Automatic annotation (TrEMBL):
Residues 255-354 form the HTH araC/xylS-type domain. It comes from the Bacteria. The modification 4-aspartylphosphate is found at D57. It is found in: Cytoplasm. This is Response regulator. Residues 5-122 form the Response regulatory domain. Gene3D superfamilies: 3.40.50.2300, Homeodomain-like (1.10.10.60). Its main location: cytoplasm. Transmembrane segments: none annotated. The keyword Transcription applies. Keywords: Cytoplasm, DNA-binding, Phosphoprotein, Transcription, Transcription regulation, Two-component regulatory system. It comes from Paenibacillus hodogayensis.
């Protein structure tokens, strides 16, 4: 399998290290061939290494990211570019789009978004180099189908929609022999997708198969009809998964999550993303459903529970005030004290000093 070469350019060493780690750990098909701490070094390395993809910070000392991209563009380089920027540089980063920048990443970099961007870059690089006509496409399409299976199983509507639009754009740019090749790829994609979903659904009711209609003879218009049938088949599987999960009926989901949080509230790293992953559902969808069922966000629910548990510890004179916060998941005492007062109206020390125990409760409306 051909490995696509990546050059990293960022004046922050930890950012380069983080990017390299994420790419080498999770991104099959890409390898980091060089790192640059400023734009001038990146320009030299790009000339020497001929990377397929440059991931560059937009602001660097000397030759900044925008000037680097302009120099590569003026020099006729075929390197694809992803820009990295802080939130305050967002508008500045957008100005790079006129030089053909393919995507941008906001710091701190989200691993899932980075992988999604690299998948798009892999397809774009292969189409540009002509590799998509060989069997090398199978590895890329296999990875895409595996990720799609995860999103379908987790009911991640956003990622599913983005992936289907990516596939649709491929379809609209194909015709003649390319259409026949696309059908072969979609058929392979469907096989992998079905296999992955079958593995994920073990122990649950069997899922309907995602069907790929027989290849029609004709132009891209007929293949567009084929693709709509493919989407309808995927939608049917999604509906089946959603209907078979009765977590959202009769507060069953709330009870299951409540039990899980009761066992893990003392872990400071407990987040919406972590809880959603435990229940195998996308964090966005999970957050919406939890708030609908519980009447508050999961973060509010966890904080409220932690304060209630802290009040119990504060009634025990052998437990120091700061220890009460640590035992319920607050690593920083100042933050613990701030949240305790926000939810109860008094500080932890005041709560212990005076006889508030009988008169204070954590108010669900005190946000």
């Amino acid at each position: 399998m051909t490995m696509h070469k990546i050059l990293l350019a960022d004046d922050e060493r930890m950012v380069r290290l983080s990017l390299r780690t994420m790419i080498e750990r999770d991104s099959a098909g890409f390898t980091v061939v060089g790192e640059a701490h400023d734009g001038e070094q990146a320009l030299e390395l790009a000339s020497e290494l001929k990377p397929d993809l440059l991931i560059t910070d937009i602001r660097m000392p000397g030759l900044d990211g925008l000037e680097l991209i302009r120099s590569l563009s003026d020099g006729g380089a075929s390197t694809e570019v992803i820009v990295v920027s802080g939130f305050g540089d967002f508008e500045y980063a957008q100005s790079a789009l006129r030089y053909g920048v393919a995507d941008y990443l906001l710091k701190p970099i989200d691993p899932d978004y980075l992988m999604s961007a690299l998948r798009k870059m892999g397809s774009r690089i292969e189409r540009k180099s002509g590799n998509s006509t060989s069997k090398q496409w199978m590895w890329t399409w296999k990875l895409d189908a595996e990720r799609m299976a995860k999103w379908v199983w987790q009911l991640d509507d956003h990622e599913i929609r983005v992936e289907l639009e990516r596939l649709r754009s491929l379809l609209l740019t194909s015709d003649g022999p390319a259409s026949a090749q696309l059908h072969e790829k979609l058929a392979y994609y469907a096989v992998v997708l079905n296999g992955e979903l079958e593995q994920m659904a073990r122990g649950s009711a069997a899922l309907p198969a995602i069907e790929m209609p027989a290849s029609p003879r004709g132009n891209a218009v007929l293949f567009a009809v084929l693709f709509e049938a493919f989407i309808a088949s995927i939608t049917g599987v999604i509906d089946h998964i959603r209907n078979s999960r009765n977590w959202w009926s009769y507060n069953r989901m709330l009870k299951n999550v409540s039990a899980y949080i009761e066992e893990n509230y003392m872990k400071s790293e407990l987040t919406v993303k972590e809880v959603a992953a435990h229940f195998e559902i996308s964090s966005n969808y999970f957050g919406i459903l939890f708030k609908r069922e519980a009447g508050m966000s999961l973060n509010q629910y966890v904080t409220r529970l932690r304060i209630e548990k802290a009040m119990e510890y504060l009634k025990n004179p052998t437990v120091k005030v700061y220890e009460a916060g640590e035992r319920v998941g607050f690593e920083d005492y100042a933050y613990f004290s701030k949240m305790f007062k926000k939810y109860t109206g008094v500080s932890p020390s005041e709560y212990r000093k005076y006889d508030y125990a009988a008169s204070i409760r954590v108010d669900a409306d005190m946000y």
